[in-house]
Amino acid sequence: MANNEESRGLKSLFDWFANRRKSGSTSLERQEREIADGLWHKCSKCGVLAYTKDLKANQMVCVECGHHNRVDSDERIRQLIDNNTWKPLDEHLRPTDPLEFRDRKLYSDRLRETQDKIGLIDAVRTGLGQINGLPIALGVMDFRFMGGSMGSVVGERLTRMIEQATQRRYPVVIVCTSGGARMQEGMLSLMQMAKISAALQRHKDARLLYIPVLTNPTTGGVTASFAMLGDIILAEPKATIGFAGRRVIEQTLREKLPENFQTAEDLLQHGFVDDIVPRTQLKNTLAQLIALHQPVLTTPHMVLWETMSLTSTAAE
């Protein structure tokens, strides 16, 4: 009798451990499912798990190692532009397929799939808004759309935004992230480099401010044109910035490049970038720079005083 009770107790004990192990695996699966659902984010640099809500509150910058995670154009606009001041421009412009290009799939199909997937028409968003109460024209590139490649719509939107800024006498800020020109549009894509650069020259001739912000990555035709034409060039920490890829350069030069080659820090050291600004400080930094470059308005009293002074000096 005692042996039967002991065997039943042993069996129930085994059942208890089995159930505990099963419930443990279930909780592990639930935890993995929660991580997959976006509740937690694992830093790609230091491996620390962070609560996604806290990470977004820190503008997607890891609190442990300072790694700047890539952000989309919506998030970037929320980070920089004051609430209820954003006015988008030229959202009706849509890309076409003038060359009827085809690689592994038709370019027209690739465009449609990308548009449906991320909800953007092309790789840049432009608009007018305010940064700490100061008016600004802002362009934000989005790497999710075909690697932020520069096609005809990207060039046209940026050009129209710069022209509006010149007309309104607004400063221009462009947040750059791109793999370069869009090969599916061939020469039409390369033409955008000259078109945007010409609009920026007219903006400069009007003695107006232009600040590009180089984020990870900024390469190819974007680097070779408007990304490097700023009055003040800012970059995010550790951003990859260059024209040709590292492997291409190493094969051409037949020598090993330094580890920090084509980083924002390396470009700052060699004078290609004016400053490296952490994302959490970017809005205030831009506001300070824009405020410093605002035109000084001369009051009528100052004009009158200067006229009287000049008149008296001439009489003497």
Assign the structural class, choosing from mainly alpha, mainly beta, alpha/beta, alpha+beta, or little secondary structure.
alpha/beta
Q: How many E-type strands?
A: 9
User: What's the average pLDDT?
Assistant: 86
Number of helices, where a helix is a run of at least 4 consecutive DSSP H or I residues: 11
Biggest sheet statistics: 7 strands, mixed
* N- and C-termini, Cα separation: 130 Å
The gross shape turns out to be globular
What letter string, H or E per element, gives the SSE order? HEEHHEHEEHEHEHEHHEHH
The CATH homologous superfamily name of the largest domain equals 2-enoyl-CoA Hydratase, Chain A, domain 1
CATH architecture label of the largest domain: Alpha-Beta Complex
Q: How large, in whole angstroms, is the Cα Rg?
A: 27 Å
Q: How much helicity do the residues have? A: 40-55%
- The largest beta-sheet arranges its strands as 3-4-5-6-7-8-9
Q: What ranges have pLDDT less than 50 throughout 5 or more consecutive residues?
A: 297-316
According to CATH, what is the class of the largest domain?
Alpha Beta
